[in-house]
Design goal:
2 domains, about 35% helix, Rossmann fold, single chain, 9 strands, about 270 residues, four-stranded mixed β-sheet, 60s Ribosomal Protein L30, Chain: A, alpha/beta
């Protein structure tokens, strides 16, 4: 991925230069949801397909994702989600920008061909203890639970919807591909304070993935009174813990309490 790259002191330097540390991130109109709506025309709407073996299963996953997002944003403007079951006789007329394969069984070679024909970017999600041969050009994830899967993607998409001051360069996110043989895992931590959130993430992340990641994304979640100083404290602490660099994004909401951290890492098997 290309810039912005806010690891190894980059975020701290950027914030000290551009903003006053300790400034509240609450938008001037008081609601991050309205801020997202006002800025929506700046970015295109991404079409996201939630694909499962049956329409019933795809609809169920769509409901989980929509409910999770609606808790913080009543109506997404930058993402449009569509449930599609492979048991349907019809096929989508246009490519999705990205598709998520949400079945618990590994994808067969034939299925991979179908998924690639449906979306420009393909994500395959496996629950714990599942195994699959990693394919080039496909992003593959291992999850300990379905709830963890939904929570991460809700958080990543909200970071784009609410367009906080920490934002990924989304063009590079969609074009980047992990090296062959890398799969993704996500660790999460929550705390009432920035330091507590960092400690919780460290406890979770230290249990797995000892190898150097091919790429990593950190998502910072917080209440609307989260300060820039809070984010500097979090990133500075994580830079002191981990040797690898990470890309940082985040979002704030009036319906959030404390500080949440999610760390996505693509690592060799």
């Amino acid at each position: 991925m290309s810039n912005p790259h806010f690891g190894r002191g980059g975020l701290r330097d950027y914030l000290y230069y551009q903003l006053n540390v300790g400034e509240t991130l609450e938008r001037s109109n008081g609601t991050p949801e309205r801020g997202a709506i006002q800025k929506a025309p700046r970015l295109d709407t991404y079409e996201i397909g939630l694909i499962a073996a049956t329409q019933v299963e795809a609809d169920r996953f769509l409901g989980l994702v929509e409910r999770a997002i609606h808790e913080h944003l009543p109506k997404p403007w930058r993402h449009r989600f569509t449930a599609y079951g492979l048991d349907q006789a019809w096929r989508p007329q246009r490519l999705f920008d990205e598709v998520h394969w949400l079945n618990n069984t590994p994808a067969s070679p034939l299925l991979l061909e179908i998924l690639v024909s449906l979306g420009r970017l393909v994500h395959i999600h496996l629950l714990e203890n599942s195994c699959v041969k990693l394919q080039p050009g496909i992003r593959t994830y291992n999850w300990s639970s379905e709830a963890d899967l939904v929570e991460f993607w809700k958080s990543l998409y909200l970071s784009r919807e609410l367009c906080w001051f920490l934002e990924l360069e989304w063009g590079s996110y969609f074009t980047w591909q992990p090296r062959v043989g890398c799969f993704a895992t996500v660790n999460a931590g929550w705390g009432a304070t920035p330091s507590a959130a960092v400690n919780a993430l460290r406890t979770s992340a230290d249990a797995i993935n000892p190898s150097h990641p091919d790429n990593a994304i950190l998502i910072i979640e917080g209440f609307i009174n989260t300060t820039i100083g809070d984010c500097v404290e979090i990133v500075n602490a994580l830079e002191g813990i981990y040797e690898f660099d990470f890309f940082t994004t985040g979002w704030v909401s009036s319906n959030y309490s404390g500080y949440g951290l999610k760390l996505l890492r693509f690592c060799p098997t």
